[in-house]
Amino acid sequence: MRTTAARKRLIEKNREVHWHPEHVGQGRFGDWLENVVDWALSRSRYWGTPLPVWKCGDCGETEVIGSFEELFRKVGRPLPDDPYDRACFDPHRPFIDDDFQWPCAASDCAGTMKRVEYVIDAWFDSGAMPFAQYHYPFENRETFRARFPADFISEAVDQTRGWFYTLHVLGCLLFDSPAYRNCIVLGHVNDENGRKMSKRLGNVVEPMEVLAETGADALRWYFCVNNPEQPSRFSARLVREAAQTFLLPLWNALSFFTIYANLDGWRPGRHEIPFAERDQLDRWILLRLYRLVRETTGHLRGYSTAPAARGIEAFLEELTNWYIRRSRDRFWAPNDESGAGAQASAKESAYQTLYEVLTTLRLLIAPFVPFVAEELHRRLLSSQGLGAVSCHLESWPEPPADRADERLETAMATVLQVARNGRSARNANSIKIRQPLRSVTLVSADPELESLVEPYVDLVSEELNVHEVRWAADSSEYVSFDVVPHYPKCGPRFGRAMPAVRAALAARDGADLKRELDGSGRIAIELDGDTAYLEPNEVEVRLEERPGIAVHGDSELLVALDVDLDDDLIAEGLAREVVHRVQNRRRAADLDYADRIAVRYRTNEEVERAIEAHREWICGETLAVTFQATNGDGPDGMEDAPIEGQAFALAIEVQSR
Ligand SMILES: [Zn+2]
Fold first, then answer.
1. Which of 100, 227, 296, 617 has the fewest CB atoms within 10 Å distance of its CB?
2. How far is the CA of 52 from the centre of ligand 1 (A)?
3. Contact of 331 with 260, CB cutoff 8 Å
4. Rounded to the nearest 5 degrees, what angle is found at the Cα of 336, between the Cα atoms of 331 and 342?
């Protein structure tokens, strides 16, 4: 096949194809087309599509047969009623060779037309797929025309010289068109350490074993989120981890919703609370959701799999680690008798919001994890007699056009940053999140930030477990700065003058140096009567916490926790520890969320005082009807659950179901 004659056209038509990743189109594939060679179509094989060329052994007369009908006419036999019934006719070797011969038609030749021995290069078959699958041009002409070229195809990178190429050649030569509009080129799958899998090395990962262990959707998600266009590492462990960061939290969000909805008897389809009247947290997660829908749609329109999957994963993180956690109290709140109070509408707003989030998420994840999406569909819609037969028959979601609140999104992003910084400050100082603190001070020189975050300070205080949120502009009360020379940079420049540089910095106030660096972008020091300037990369700014303060952050936003504890705070922390231990026991006993319990406990004086002070709150949190100290020693069924080394033991008993 003289492909070299079509080289220019092959290259032109390749420019109409969108390659993912883009560089393959010009690079690997483009280079291959630039250096195209003629295609030797025949192969000396037994198995394969017989080359439809008949030749006379005597005079060399050649005929190319174009259809079964023509072939049967040549041998003077009627075409079978169903030429595709293998019992009547098999167009492969050896039948095609033995049963289909005819006398040569050349004048004065008594030879016989016999098929040449070759079969067709199997790559031709794969390249013929777009029309061969419809038996075009013999039938389905309209179907073929409507579906050619393909919207997208996908295979691994080695197919640039295989399938991608033969599709392109046949598309161009036969139809003067590329065969596909988009091509997602997959990287190769390697072992866990990035080495090529080989039987010899013994590092082959059996895909069916991974499928059996993790499920098909976990496997799909793993490849999508790790950018299928890149070579990937593959092992059961890696797939399991991907499932744990995505499918598990998704599942937890679903079960959180269904457990509470069932407890409260909440059902979809109630009078919808207008967006503007929803709780701020509800409005925020919906805005994030609509943004996610727009972004995912854009990524998928552009055939960008990994950014789409990563966006969904990031959203899920916000949903589970912020929205659900900070909304838990609204779901948990007892129902008012009338069902009309502020608490009831806050709860209804939470239900309607989380339901919209989960049902929309179900559609966004459908192309990635089809089974999990379908399960969400069944639990959220089919179980209520709602929705299509399958989520895969539903329309792609479209976010409402009229809802936007940049300020709310920006503010919440800042609140999340505060929460992260606060948690880091606690972790760095080993202060448990269950220990309440007196206050947190948010230090920022930007007055805008305070007005932005102010409406959401309740979220900050709940999340960081502090009684009070304060603002400050000057960080010097909370941290001190120590500015020292950065030796790897300064050493070569100043050589033996280094002690003098160090002394010059040490002689000045750290906060002052920091201000100079931030303000002018450098620090001036006097050295032997001259002024030398230190660039930002020549100094190290060390941040040191003032005593009793735990900080995390930067000069734009510093979160400073007051970590001094008094007796009241310690008692409150102990009460939370007690609740935590009762909840653990409830879980271990596999109690229903709504089960009321009686609690007996034994402890020391300090914990007892904490329980006394917070008894009502503890009972509310744990659904305890009674919470009684027992002081006997004997076998009373109590299990030890010490609190920070302090004695505590408890036993729970279900009161009512
Ligand atoms: Zn002949």
1. 617
2. 17
3. yes
4. 70
Q: How far is the CA of 150 from the centre of ligand 1 (A)?
A: 44
Nearest to 126 by CA among 92, 171, 181: 171
Taking the centre of ligand 1 as the mean of its atom positions, its distance from the CA of residue 114, in whole angstroms, is: 10
Instruction: Let me know: does 381 contact 395? Beta carbons within 8 Å.
Output: no
Q: How far is the CA of 120 from the centre of ligand 1 (A)?
A: 24
Q: What is the distance in A from the centroid of ligand 1 to the CA of 168?
A: 37
**pLDDT tens, residue by residue, 227-261:** 888 888 888 999 999 999 999 999 999 999 999 99
The total of other beta-carbon atoms located within 10 Å of residue 238's CB is 17
Cα 116 to averaged position of ligand 1 atoms, centre (Å): 14
- pLDDT on residue 340: 62
Model confidence over 387-434: pLDDT tens digits?
Answer: 999 999 999 999 998 888 899 999 999 999 999 999 999 998 899 999
CATH architecture of the domain formed by 479-545: 2-Layer Sandwich (3.30)
For residues 107 and 61, the answer to whether their CB atoms sit within 8 Å is: no
Q: How far is the CA of 46 from the centre of ligand 1 (A)?
A: 25
What is the token pair recorded at 29? 């594939």
Taking a C-beta distance cutoff of 8 angstroms, is the pair 579, 614 a contact? no
Angstrom distances, CA of residue 620 to CA of 259, 561, 582, 597: 19, 28, 12, 11
CATH 3.30.2320 in the chain, residues?
A: 567-656
For the chain, the maximum distance between any two Cα atoms, rounded to a whole number of angstroms, is 122
Peptide bond into 21 cis (omega under 30): yes
**Mean local confidence (pLDDT), 297-323:** 96
- Measure 66 CA to ligand 1 centroid, in angstroms: 20
- Taking the centre of ligand 1 as the mean of its atom positions, its distance from the CA of residue 79, in whole angstroms, is 25
Of the chain, the percentage scoring pLDDT greater than 90 comes to 65
Of residues 561, 567, 566, the one with CA closest to residue 547: 561
Give me ligand 1 centre to Cα 100, in Å: 16
For the cut 60, the answer to whether the pLDDT of residue 338 exceeds it is no
Task: Please give the model's pTM, rounded to 2 decimal places.
Answer: 0.81
Tell me, in angstroms, the distance from the centre of ligand 1 to residue 217's CA.
Answer: 61
Q: CA-to-CA distance for 435 and 425, rounded, in angstroms?
A: 13
pLDDT (tens digit per residue) in 343-353: 788 899 999 99
- 458 CA distance to ligand 1 centroid (A)? 96
Q: Which CATH architecture has domain 567-656?
A: 2-Layer Sandwich (3.30)
Distance 49 CA to ligand 1 centre (A): 25
Which residue has tokens 């990937």? Answer: 232
Rounded to whole angstroms, the Cα distance separating 542 from 22 reads: 44
**Distance (Å) from CA 101 to ligand 1 centroid:** 12
Residue 228's alpha-carbon distances to 159, 195, 237, 256, 307, in angstroms, are 15, 17, 18, 32, 11
CA of 112 to the centre of ligand 1 (A): 6
Which residues of the chain are in CATH 1.10.730.10 domains?
A: 246-393
Class at the top of the CATH hierarchy for domain 246-393: mainly alpha
**Ligand 1 center to 99 CA (angstroms):** 18
